[in-house]
Amino acid sequence: MKDIIYILLILFVNLSFCQDRITGEPFATRSEVLGQNGMVATSHPLATQIGLDILKKGGNAVDSAIAANAALGLMEPTGCGIGGDLFAIVWDGKSKKIYGLNASGRSPKTLTLDYFTKKGLKYIPSHGPLPVSVPGAVDGWFELHQKFGSIPMSQILSPSIQYAKNGFPLTELISWYMNRSVPFYESKGFPNIDDTYRKQNGGNLPKEGEVYKNHYLANTYQKLAEGGRDVFYKGDIARIISKFIKDQGGFLSIKDLAEHKSEWVEPVSINYRGYDVWELPPNGQGIAALQMLKILEGYDFSQIKFGSTKHIHLFTEAKKLAFEDRAKYYADMDFSKVPIEYLISNDYADKRRKLIGEKSGIYSAGKISTGETIYLTVADSEGTMISLIQSNYRGMGSGMVPPKLGFMLQDRGELFSLKKGQANSFEPGKRPFHTIIPAFITKDEKPYVSFGVMGGDFQPMGHTQIVMNLIDFGMNLQEAGDAPRWDHTGGANPMGKTTENTGIIRLESGIPYLTLRGLMNKGHKIGTARGIYGGYQAILWDNKNKVYHGASESRKDGQASGY
After folding, report:
1. Of the listed 42, 171, 373, 499, which one is catalytic?
2. Angstrom distance (rounded) from CA 450 to CA 278
3. Domain CATH number, residue 329
4. What is the pLDDT of residues 277-312, one digit of tens each?
5. Is 373 tagged catalytic?
6. Do the domain assignments include residue 240?
7. What is the pTM of this model?
């Protein structure tokens, strides 16, 4: 009976999915946004407007991105904030070069693997002081600003300071997340939760449309505007953070904060049917998308329909293959040599592709011979484009809220493995495996698309789906993000989990029932879920007409806007 109800539900959802549009794909929620002088796409309309204002007042794309990210740390604390990390890819319109920034923090240097072993822990706890690593976002802002910024940081942070002081109306989605998350942290007995999220707002958590304020965060942003990054890593803020974590039984010290630095890295790329797709190297998971694309490039998708059984089957098997390598090899490259060039090579892709059959398979890593997040992107009149992603990791983060600062610290340390001898095994001063990844596409050595998809492990799958939607299936920028998505769970991961079965494909509404039936015939297990298919923002540069195209996520509160 349950199976019959499930099938009927799927059929109903599929029949009710389409919009009554006179142009474009029926699943598209709107047309692309167009502009000649600049474009901003973020997960919150007010953050987008702040970014656009910065552009109009003489700031460039990087200035605008920092301003928008600061706004999102206030307006979307359920997904990001200055207690977390940051990654960015920048196409510099002046030098015509691409740059990568890894602004992720490291583990405390006085915390060891032996500590966890003696505690009898198999995994690092998801909340509390132990998963807290150095928050890298603020240093990332100042690194980006020092290299590319054009207006003072005080001007960049001013809009968010004013909104934090005066308040802003909470959106439906963020209200839902906050009213779900804050009580959870309170139930754990973590200090400063009530003071930070309720008392600043009259003792209540605002509902949709009610005004939310964060005076503590306004003061923190003001200190950053006046004193720069050292206030956070060496000054008053650092001292408050380190003392608080010590009092909670954690290990993050003022020395860990003082010694932190971001790293400029070389983005890596593969060519996919004439387009160069760029990701950042590990400790992130971006090259998993490149591995998937190299495997899938061996199939002629001009003869394979979008959302068909064959499409999703091949995609899922490519994902399984890439993610087995992800589990075994991806880690902080200061501690582990990751064979990037071989993993994304044609030769290796050919070998892995041959393992894919007509049925759902179980794979192991190749032999080497040699939630919540926010994503935003900005482009300016000089041709600079930035792809930026920032997160606290699991929901709002660790639950550790230093007193009177207005933000929660991340729990990225949860993503270390506690199994000795693995690439991603915990070590002092090491960056954990990271899920957040920005992406970029160039064509003929010119910028083409800056994009990203939020959502933990889903992100490489989301990146691959977007690239295929654009290149293989000819969708425009908005259609590529609105198209129904799917996710595969199961298999090994960098935290030490091993593969036990073929996993589950979870499909969004809009995938035809015939596809579901076909996948089940191939041995795939099918499921559904909500809220796991990521968010999306993107900007495309039309070099012929000199026009920016913008798109934003229909599943969240995002907005693209240009001028």
Report:
1. 373
2. 10
3. 1.10.246.130
4. 999 999 999 999 999 999 999 999 999 999 999 999
5. yes
6. no
7. 0.95
